[in-house]
TrEMBL record:
The keyword Repeat does not apply. It is found in: Cytoplasm. One of its GO terms (biological process) is cell-cell adhesion. Keywords: Cytoplasm. Residues 161-289 form the Talin R4 domain. GO terms for cellular component: cytoplasm; focal adhesion; plasma membrane. Residues 1097-1221 form the Vinculin-binding site-containing domain. CDD domains: talin-RS (cd12150). GO terms for molecular function: actin filament binding; integrin binding. The lineage of its organism: Eukaryota, Metazoa, Ecdysozoa, Nematoda, Chromadorea. This is I/LWEQ domain-containing protein. It comes from Plectus sambesii. PANTHER family: RHEA, ISOFORM B, TALIN.
Length: 1326
């Protein structure tokens, strides 16, 4: 027995020793892998650069004692000294780059010297705030000089990191697709999820090969131009692959609960988590690569355009040989839309680029050039698609026009580059403007080559030719009588209105149908134009004739605008902004026709008024034909209010018609007819918008998105300003007219400035925010110049002043055109909804009621017209009563239909019923557990259920905000939001029941059931609150209930997540926390909803972020300690770390949106994402240590990860500091001034005691008087600059604060000297 025990003991010792050897071998293998050539190699120079950046960031953001700042400065100086030596060494080995490298070394050395001097001053005056500020500024300058000197090195490292992250993403995506395809056969309960998973795998699989190809191209590129193209292509492919992969992760994780095979579900879970983690690293690497590669974008654009021009040349040759074939997925409709959209992208990007060039903003020039190049790439793809799929397309002409676009764009890019290199060239801006006009002309020519555009060109040419032929002194004679012409004119106007309505309704129908409507419109317009000229011929009054001619020209202009709008809406059927513009232009044309009829006809006023009303109603009939596009910005309940209000006005108008017809009061009768027609049009628009909302709210419809700007308001103002500027430039005005025009222009440019300001406040794109502000400034400045010139012209109507007015008008026209081109970007356009068949069916009650109302109103107005001629005719009165009854009944039906079809109510009812069922299921399971009769589930492990709970809870958390917003102000989205959130509650409840069934801890079981039920009940309360609020912005009382219920649901979910994550983390399972951090990193790139920007300042976000950063640092340091003495605490610390980072990421979105410059915003986003990847690594290492408490290698890795997190926290703090230089300078200045006040109090005490005397008896107050006055005046100017800086940016505020505090110090010194010179004999004056 003893021998057997000894043998067992020896065997156990052998096993332990073997395990140790395996551990050592694994550690050595991991170390070898980390130094493998396949990894990104870190050189000595890289380490020194990292030290400089990290230390300078720490120094810049440090707010402690001066001694620590001086110590950091010493470390920084030592690292920069080594870096300068390395750069000089490189200069000796690279003769071609010798001068550039030596210059870089010199700039770093000079910046280092200045920092050392600032450090010495700080060491000598440790309590002086200004010396600390000076040291921080010197550190910033040194960091900037180092970054510029090592730009190539930083860029190389960023691209290498991006290549590695892209490789990992491609691998993880491929594995996820494989796991998803393997799991599909085990999805038997949800056919929809199976199809969605298949679709997402197919979509992602299309991007992966292109990503791999771009990685290889980037690695194999040797020549500088090759590297630019390859690296930019890598960035583009990485950007494109992000969203498909994110959707694949979401769909995969949502599908896991319905996969019946456990191994397939586990594999899908694992691969999707790895992909999510890889995407977090890819996003961070991509942000960093974009940050350091901005300078290459102008060169990249030039190379791209050259390559695209070569592609187009190849397309042309292939087309000539009939060998141009479509690529898979390429369609004629898609290609036409792509071509049209690309022209808008190009125009907007070039407008931004020219504006940035004039301000010499090289970074924004690069960004705009990159966007323009991508637009040109889209244009090339569209050209290929059209030429390959449309045999009726003029391929040769289209390709030639496209090449003209490329060549003129290339010329523009090269001119911009020259302009930036030669800032003193006076004629550069004019050359740029001329070249830009060439690009615009080529784009228009390119669009004119689209199939079907020739019809529009011919129609537009016909209308323009007819308009130019109008001459008041040469009106063609008419052979018909005046009465015949007048009767025909009214009929012709009605036909033109009907043709307009038909053309608008047929805009997005088949080409043959549209062509027929277009030809009918042109034919009708010709007839109307001819009859209008005949009417003008019979008019002998020259003033009235002039009004007629002006009216004809206005109608011609509106008809041309209508054709342009129809063309735009037809080529971009999914652009709802174009559709709204089309509706607006159609109404403008109808109103212009009515105004002309009022001038031309001499019949009874009531007849004209009734005819005008009928035409006005006919002009809006088309909006109820197919309400698949929004016609206004009204929400659903505003539509209901509008319909209710307009129905009251209609009732008043109908009463007025009957009353005034009986009283023979024709003037009031006409006013009532106008009220009726306006009310009917308002009812039609409200009904159409409400019908659109109902269609959108259907569960199978896809919601749209409102545009960033009010396009209709912007277009009206732009059009008016253009007309006035062109009139002023051509000098077609008299003295009074130009004064009136200037007043009107000021109102419209004020509107444009307000539109820009609102858009700037609403967008979270910092570059767009900046450009909107610049556009508003340019428009306002040009308007002020024009107003000044007009005032001079009013005082002296001379040739010189007319010339000044013309120049000012051209300047304003240029600013307005630039703004117009910029806002045409698809980024700012609204995205239309896709209405399903069920949605169309739900629209019918509203649409039919609206149509009946229109028909009844037209019949009523026609009867009223007859009643005015025979007010005593009983049958006519009876017919009017019948018509009024029809209208009243149709309005009641309309209001009832809108109320009954309120969006989201059915979905809320279904969700409430389902939640009650789920709560009952939880109660039943809890009761079974209490009775020890809950069967253990064996379809998944407890880890699998925990992961399912965390995944579902995370999805619900992310959707609470969207549901709350929909419940308060977006009725059309309420049903969609409810359905999306409810889709994750069944997996949540199922996971909680499954996890509880496998738990042997009764307390854990009870806790899970209680928390699950709390979450379900909180969701139920939220659903009740959402149903009551219904998306009505005016239901303020219910909004409070929604917010409270949403807050309770968040708290309940957080408690459930913490419980589950705590249980999982105790076993070393950290996948849920890694997933949480990965999602938080992804959130940093998302735009902030406009409602979140209200009352949010950068300082508020900064304060919360600093607090979170301190907590993250504390947790990282505590993790290191606990890894050696209390590994059980690592799980809760990792959970706390993930929660703190989630809060930091959320606040960073607000900080980025509120940042004053794109540079600061980019730094903050990049630093927070970098910190996120560090947190992921730290959490993973914490899990490894928790699972293997005795593994020393894991503990060392955790220590390294914690150190990296601490360093990356400094990056975040430094980025925040760069966004608040002015605020920090004011804080430091306040501290300095506080010290000065204390010093002056001490001096006053000496003066009161009579002991304040000069050192020299010869010292006189007159010697100090001038210095005191001079310094006081300087302080006044500095105070003004400080106030201006507070309203400007942080840099100006910082400079102003430093100057002000410096002057205050000087004033304090000279005042003390002056007071001392008065001697103690004059203590009161002292």
């Amino acid at each position: 027995g003893a021998c057997k025990k000894e043998t067992q003991k020896r065997s156990l010792g052998d096993i332990v020793e073997a395990a140790r050897q395996v551990t050592r071998s694994l550690d050595e293998l991991i170390g070898h892998i980390k130094t493998s050539p396949k990894q990104v190699r870190v050189t000595q120079q890289d380490q020194e650069l990292e030290t400089i950046i990290t230390t300078s960031d720490r120094l810049i953001s440090y707010q402690g004692s001066s001694s620590e700042m001086v110590r950091q400065a010493q470390v920084l100086a030592q690292a920069t000294t080594h870096l300068v030596s390395h750069i000089k060494g490189e200069a000796d080995t690279q003769p071609d780059n010798r001068d550039r490298l030596l210059g870089a070394a010199r700039s770093v050395a000079q910046a280092t010297t200045k920092m050392i001097e600032a450090a010495k001053d700080c060491q000598g005056r440790p309590q002086a705030a200004e010396s600390q500020m000076a040291l921080r500024t010197a550190a910033e300058d040194l960091q900037k000089a180092t970054t510029e000197a090592s730009a190539d090195q930083i860029e190389r490292r960023a691209i290498q990191r991006l290549e590695q992250a892209a490789r990992v993403t491609a691998s993880n995506a491929t594995q996820t697709i494989g796991a998803a395809n393997a799991a599909r056969e085990y999805i038997t309960t949800s056919h929809t999820q199976q199809e969605e998973l298949f679709y997402q795998c197919t979509e992602t699989a299309e991007y992966v090969p292109r990503l791999i190809s771009s990685i290889k191209q980037s690695q194999n590129a040797q020549q500088p131009q090759e590297k630019i193209m390859a690296q930019s292509e890598l960035v583009r492919q990485c950007t494109e692959v992000l969203q498909p992969c994110i959707r694949l992760v979401d769909v995969s994780q949502n599908t896991v609960p319905v996969v019946s095979d456990q191994s397939s579900a586990l594999r899908l879970t694992t691969t999707s988590q790895q992909l999510s983690e890889g995407l977090a690293e890819l996003r961070t690497a991509l942000t960093r690569a974009q940050e350091v590669s901005v300078s290459m974008n102008l060169d990249y654009a030039i190379e791209v355009v050259r390559g695209l021009d070569d592609e187009l040349d190849q397309f042309g040759r292939a087309a000539q040989q009939n060998q141009l074939y479509p690529v898979p997925g390429e369609t004629a409709e898609g290609a036409s839309t792509q071509l049209t959209t690309s022209t808008r992208v190009i125009g907007s990007a070039l407008a931004q680029m020219l504006s940035a060039t004039s301000r010499r903003d090289e970074q924004f020039v690069g960004v705009s050039a990159h966007d323009a190049a991508e637009g040109l790439r889209q244009l090339t793809g569209g050209v290929h698609g059209i030429c390959a799929t449309r045999r009726d397309a003029p391929s040769e002409k289209l390709i030639q026009s496209s090449r003209s676009v490329m060549q003129s764009s290339l010329q523009l890019f090269e001119n911009v580059k020259v302009c930036l290199e030669r800032p003193g060239d006076a004629g550069s801006q004019e050359r740029l403007a001329n070249v830009a006009k060439g690009v615009s002309s080529s784009l228009k020519e390119c669009l004119s080559c689209l199939p079907g555009q020739q019809d529009f060109d011919a129609a537009s040419q016909t209308i323009e030719t007819m308009s130019r032929s109008v001459n008041i002194s040469n009106i063609p004679p008419s052979a018909r009588s005046y009465q015949e012409v007048q009767d025909d004119l009214v009929k012709s106007a009605s036909r033109l209105t009907e043709a307009t309505s038909r053309l608008v309704a047929d805009t997005n129908k088949e080409p043959a149908v549209l062509r027929e409507s277009l030809n009918n419109f042109v034919h009708t317009y010709k007839s109307f134009f001819s009859i209008t000229l005949e009417t003008t011929y019979h008019q002998q009054d020259q003033a009235v004739r002039q009004q007629m001619v002006s009216g004809i020209q206005t109608i011609s202009s509106e008809a041309s605008r209508l054709l342009s709008s129809v063309r735009a809406s037809h080529t971009e059927p999914n652009n709802s902004t174009s559709r709204q513009q089309l509706t607006t232009v159609a109404r403008s044309l109808a109103e212009a026709v009515n105004r002309l009829i009022d001038v031309c006809t001499s019949g009874a006023p009531w007849q004209n008024e009734c005819d005008n009303a009928l035409r006005q109603i006919e002009a809006v009939r088309h909006i109820l034909e197919n309400p698949v596009q929004p016609v206004s910005d009204l929400n659903y309940y505003e539509c209901l209010d509008t319909v209710t209000e307009q129905s009251k006005r209609l009732g008043d108008g109908m009463t007025g018609i009957a009353h005034y017809a009986k009283a023979l009061n024709m003037e009031s009768f006409c006013q009532s007819v106008r009220e009726v027609s306006n009310a009917v049009c308002g009812l039609a628009e409200g009904a159409a918008q409400a019908a659109y909302m109902v269609g959108v709210s259907d569960s199978n419809s896809t919601p749209g998105r409102s545009g960033l700007i009010e396009s209709a308001k912007c277009d009206r103002s732009v059009q008016f300003v253009r007309e006035v500027c062109e009139r002023i430039t051509a000098r077609r005005y008299n003295q009074q007219q130009i004064l009136d025009d200037a007043t009107a222009v000021a109102k419209h440019t004020s509107t444009l400035a307000n539109v820009c300001r609102d858009a700037s406040n609403r967008t979270s794109n910092v570059n767009a925010k900046k450009h909107f502000i610049n556009c508003a400034r340019d428009v306002a400045s040009s308007t002020a110049t024009l107003i000044t010139a007009v005032k001079k012209l009013d005082q002296s109507f001379s040739e010189q002043h007319q010339s000044e007015c013309s120049q000012s008008a051209q300047s304003l026209l240029s600013a307005v055109n630039s703004l117009s081109a910029f806002v045409q970007s698809p980024e700012f356009a609204s995205v239309p909804a896709r209405i399903a068949a069920g949605g169309r069916q739900a629209q019918q009650p509203i649409v039919q009621a609206g149509k009946h109302m229109l028909d009844g109103s037209c019949q009523m107005i026609g009867t009223a017209k007859m009643l005015a001629t025979s007010p005593k005719d009983p049958p006519t009165w009876q017919r009017l009563a019948d018509n009024s009854k029809v209208v009243s009944e149709s309005i009641k039906s309309l209001v009832s239909a809108i109320r009954d079809k309120a969006p989201g109510q059915n979905e809320c009812d279904s969700a409430i019923e389902r939640m009650n069922t789920l709560i009952n299921a939880v109660d039943q399971a809890s009761l079974a557990a209490y009775n020890q009769s809950l069967p253990a589930r064996n379809d998944k492990s407890d880890q699998g259920y925990h992961q399912q709970i965390l995944q579902a809870a995370s999805q619900i958390q992310e959707r609470i905000e969207g549901l709350s917003i929909a419940a308060k102000r977006e009725a059309e989205n309420l049903g969609h939001r409810v359905s999306q959130e409810m889709g994750h509650f069944e997996p949540l409840v199922d996971g909680c029941v499954g996890a509880a069934s496998l738990s042997y801890n009764d307390k854990q079981q009870i806790s899970l059931f209680d928390q699950c039920k709390t979450v379900a009940e909180a969701q139920l309360q939220l659903l009740y609150a959402c149903k009551d609020a219904g998306g009505n912005p005016k239901a303020r009382d219910f909004h409070t209930a929604v917010d409270e219920a949403a807050g309770q649901l968040r708290e309940a979910l957080t408690e459930l997540q913490m419980n589950v994550q705590s249980t999982a983390s105790e076993a070393g399972v950290v996948s849920g926390m890694v997933e949480s951090i990965s999602r938080s990193i992804a959130r940093t790139d998302e735009n902030v909803h406009t409602s979140q920007l209200t009352n949010v300042s950068f300082v508020d976000a900064q304060t919360r972020m600093v607090r979170a950063c301190k907590e993250i640092t504390r947790i990282a340091q505590e993790m290191v300690t606990k890894s050696y003495n209390d590994t059980h605490a690592l799980g809760s610390l990792a959970l706390e770390l993930s929660q703190q980072y989630a809060q930091l990421a959320e606040d960073s979105r607000l900080a980025v949106a509120a940042a004053h410059s794109p540079d600061v915003a980019q730094k903050i986003r990049s630093a927070v994402q970098e910190l996120g990847t560090g947190c992921i690594e730290l959490v993973k290492q914490a899990g490894a240590v928790r699972a293997h408490p005795d593994d020393q290698f894991s503990k060392r890795e955790l220590t390294k990860a914690a150190q990296i997190v601490t360093e990356k926290v400094q990056f975040v703090l430094s980025a925040l500091h760069s966004g608040s230089k002015g605020t920090q300078a004011c804080i430091n200045a306040a501290s300095t001034v506080s010290g000065i006040i204390g010093d002056l109090d001490t001096t006053i005490m000496f003066a009161t005691a009579g002991t304040l005397n000069p050192d020299q008896s010869s010292d006189q107050f007159s010697d100090h008087r001038d210095a005191i006055l001079k310094t006081a005046k300087a302080l006044v100017e500095d105070t003004k600059a400080l106030v201006a800086g507070a309203a400007s940016n942080q840099e100006q505020l910082a400079v102003a604060a430093q100057n002000a505090v410096r002057t205050i110090v000087q004033l304090s010194d000279v005042v003390k000297s002056g007071a001392t010179s008065l001697t103690s004999h004059n203590s009161e004056a002292q």
